[in-house]
Design brief:
By secondary structure, the chain is an all-beta fold. The chain contains no helices and five strands. The protein has one domain. About 0% of the residues lie in helices and about 55% in strands. Strand 1 and strand 2 form a beta hairpin.
Length: about 80
């Protein structure tokens, strides 16, 4: 396994954590980074295409999520 705190890049396989206030499908899910949008010099939004669909707390399903908190994304 790669070092989990290493820089995450487009095409990387990752695990992301979805938290219950925003997701009915809370927990860790695997997927592939499809886009990285820089936010500041030290943080970015990581767009991850999940292997399965997840359900948002407000309803609706998706397999594309944005992860901002670096503690919620781990390289595989």
């Amino acid at each position: 396994m790669n070092h989990p705190r290493a820089e995450v890049a487009i095409g990387d396989r990752v695990k992301v954590r979805l938290s219950s206030p925003y997701w009915r499908s809370a927990g860790w899910y695997e997927g592939t980074v499809s886009r990285v949008d820089p936010y500041s010099a030290h943080r970015s939004f990581y767009w991850v295409e999940l292997d399965i669909e997840v359900e948002a707390a407000q309803g609706g399903k998706t397999n594309l999520v944005s992860v901002f908190n670096p503690r919620h994304i781990v390289r595989l």
